[in-house]
Amino acid sequence: MIFVVSAVVMMSATTPFLWGLRIAITMVPIALLIVEKQYASALRFLVLYLAALGLTFYYLTAQATGFLTAFLVGYCSIVAQFMPAMITAWYVVRTTKIDEFISAMQKMHVPDGITISLAVVMRFFPTIKEEYASIRDAMKMRGVMLGGGSAVKMVEYRMIPLLFSCVNIGDELSAAAITRGLGGKVKRTSIEQLKMQALDYVFIFVFTAAAVIFVASKYMK
Amino acid sequence: MKFRGVVEEKKVNKKLEAKDFITVGLFTALLFVVEFACGILGFIHPYIVASYVVMIPLVGAIPMMLFYTKIDKFGMISIMSVLLAIIMFVTGMGYLGAPLIIAAGVIADFVAKSGDYKDFKKIAISYGIFCLWICANYFPVIVSAKSYRQDLLDGGYTAEYCDSLFRAINSKTIAVLLVLCLLFGFLGAFLGKAVVRKHFEKAGIA
Amino acid sequence: MMKNIIEIKNVRFHYKGAKESLQNVSLYIKEGETLLLCGASGSGKTSVLRLINGLIPNYYQGELTGEVMVAGRDISKTPLYELAGVVGTVFQNPRSQFFSVDTDGEIVFGPENVGLEPEEIKRRKELIINEMGIDKLMERSLFELSGGEKQQIACASVAALLPGIILLDEPSSNLDRDAIEKLHDIILKWKKQGKTIIISEHRLWYLKDLFDRVIYMDKGRIKKQWSKEEFLKLDTATIENLKLRPLEVPSYFSVLFNERSSEKETSESGMSNSILLQDFFFSYRSSPYLFRKRHFAESDGDRLELCIPELKLPKGKVIGIVGKNGTGKSTFLRCLCGLEKDCRGIIETDGKVYRGNARIGLSYMVMQDVNHQLFTDSVESEVLLSMSDKDEIRCHEILKNLGLIEYKDTHPMALSGGQKQRVAIASAIAAGAEILLFDEPTSGLDFDHMMKVGLLLKGLAQSGKTVLVSTHDPELIEKCCDYELYIKNGRVESFGGIAEKILKRNEIKESV
Fold first, then answer.
1. Which residues in chain B are closer than 8 Å to C413, comparing Cβ atoms?
2. Is residue C309 situated within a structural domain?
């Protein structure tokens, strides 16, 4: 069950880990990406992660101070810190089908309302990205990227067209979904028969183990 | 003439429908994008992390006020808060804040409901309460301040970053932050309302 | 005599807070019939479809009187999800009718909602994929598909519920010629399966062999009805009087679109004053591992998605850009107005050379979805936003010329599609743009509005602007363009005056 795995991955990845362990854990989603043939994103993440990691180590040992270095280190460590979670989130979004997701949620007995809404959230991220890209193009052509120097205008010019088109799309989307039977009284079925496979158990085991080791080592100190 | 009765009956129906779930999903996505955009600024300096309480309520008010015009049933804000809790968890903000997010959402829902989702004063208060969810992001900092600090140091943050982070966010300031959230949420509601009136009502879609 | 599967009796309807949109509509449709709804935008075609699929009154609320029976059910008393297996609807906008993010999930979405057994759903999915020949589109992200491919998936996901009645609401609006032909084949298949089909559409040419009956709507009423034979006999003048698009499209375009005219020709006659474009190279596929794209040159050869080393465009003319979807029309426009920074093209006009960001001020693109380029709360401020000197008198003059002055305080989003387009044009003129680019401005417009856009483009050209318009509407090119630029695989395939082409077509006709 992909979803459970990713939840576990994320939980463990976000809890701070011993360095070695953390790096190892981070490699897992990257490996997963490679398995799923998302080479380009895997490589990009890997490079970014290693760079951040390298910089952090370098500056940490140098005990650097000063605003700029603090800024740099802060930035890198955030990358190092959140990268695993981000990669995993990225992995989940790229590889989990909404359909699988819905049926996983149903298995976990999450109410339909939440499942549907969450599926819509996932569907809307790429849409918002698309819409926002063309709004930015339009702003570029008009030369209002910086909103004439006013922060309020900057936000307004981006938000307003985005809201208008998203609300329209949402409206058309619900009409289309409803005519295809969404919201009926019958229980939804799913062709995705999600079953826990051996691999999933292995993942869960590895991550729980990692979490246990981490917690243990922390409190032993 | 024949069906007028049926149509009115529909309006009374307060059960959430597929359409409402889609609306909730849409606005949650929008709100999260706003939150994320502001969140990125937090990478620059820890003090900006603290200023989330000002930025997010103000900017987020625009989609939220539009959202409020679409609500007429109980549960929509609650669901939104559950979604936000899940997303926060998934994106690595931890699970400590989840109860606060959901509690804020449910209370906000009740407050707005008492005004029948029309009364603007109630909506403003409701939005202010809803904004408390932002504070959930700070929860790991406060609840486990000591170990979190150690974690951060282990995690490669400099002592300097931590110090300024904790100067900005600790159990004393959290009260201030909560109040700020509420306050700016309230202010944001007015700002958002103004924007909704300026654009969406004028264009006839709200 | 087959029985009526759809009965609409004396229906009146108006949307909440709007004026009456259907007046006393009665319509009886037999099982297996294919019906074409035509008429201007806003004539009530969509509302009729919504009556049948139950969105009126169950989703769009308003006041409804009369009776609508579909397959023996009283629509207003039937919850929408019960109609899912009875009536299927393909909507106009391919972007907004998806629930899933992947193609497989979208096709099974309907059957899953109705709670079919997984085995049955799989069987149906296979069936539909084979029937439509869309196995190549499977396991893809919907966001990567072209408009035509999206529309195919939309048809498939509707068909997966095996409805007896299928409604199509202007399905070809965003499609190119090839995609329209695919759509035609799908509808033909449905017709052969004996499904009842109702199509609301402005483009009539591809439906000639499909419909059995034509309904003409005007201002919320059914004005006229024809049988297939009667309708095909109508002459061009009558059709034009009804403000419908023609049944036949100019033949030289079919030659062009079928890619048979392989002769490379660029004529530069009559170009005393011209704009010179140089070095327009671009590709979206730059190597993904690098953070920075390198600059493109002609030597990149086949890798380039846009390759125009040099092109002369006549000034003050309307130039139609034709070619299939995904062939580089939009890329060309985007590069021309400077949106793609990595395209290093140079524009030379009046002895001045524009490169890089300077191109942004020189040209302005009216996007296909104008909603994205309207930012402010009134038409007037929208135009003033583009003016650095905020000259109100000039602003009013521009608005007057475009017939927008009476709307100057209206919110741009409250306007109709055509008016929004004009607001975008107004702000382009206000910004002092010399080259105006239009990305498919007439898709989804009825004949009347299309002609209005055409006249507007001509007017802009007469006032000295150079107008480039990408389009799939041959009617528009014939009626208002001076030149035609045919782009294929990002290369200029042919460029020449329309008048000469029409002459040539007539020669071909005579010789045949």
1. 199, 203, 205
2. no
